[in-house]
Amino acid sequence: MKELLEAIAKSLVDYPDDVSVNEIEGEQSIILELRVAQADMGKVIGKQGRIAKAIRTLVKASATKENKRVIVEILQ
């Protein structure tokens, strides 16, 4: 899931080298922290958060196969 999130984010932004994903794994959930360049925050979040919501939906759908709960956080 980390690789999926990283691939999606890198395809959206202007500075793909600044994309980093940190994975924090718990017993039943995984937290994925996405960091992008300040100039790319709008591209990852989208208008009214639509792109961010779509990214979260895709990652959650891939996590259901592993019976895990995934939380995607977009950090500055």
Quick structural overview:
It is built from three helices and three strands. With about 80 residues, it is an alpha+beta fold.
Polypeptide structure, described:
The structure is a single chain. The chain is α+β, with helices and mostly antiparallel strands and 76 residues long. The chain has a single domain, classed as K homology (KH) domain (GMP Synthetase, Chain A, domain 3, 2-Layer Sandwich). It contains three helices and three strands; from the N terminus they run αββααβ. A three-stranded mixed sheet has the order 1-2-3, with helices on one face. Strand 1 (20-25) and strand 2 (29-35) form a beta hairpin. It is globular, with a radius of gyration of 12 Å.
Please report which band the strand proportion falls in: under 5%, 5-15%, 15-25%, 25-35%, 35-45% or over 45%: 25-35%
- The average pLDDT is 93
The total domain count is 1
Adjacency order of strands in the biggest sheet = 1-2-3
**SSE order in H/E notation?**
HEEHHE
Q: Which geometry do the CA atoms define?
A: globular
Largest sheet: 3 strands, mixed
Number of H- or I-type helical stretches: 3
The helix fraction, in percent, is 25-40%
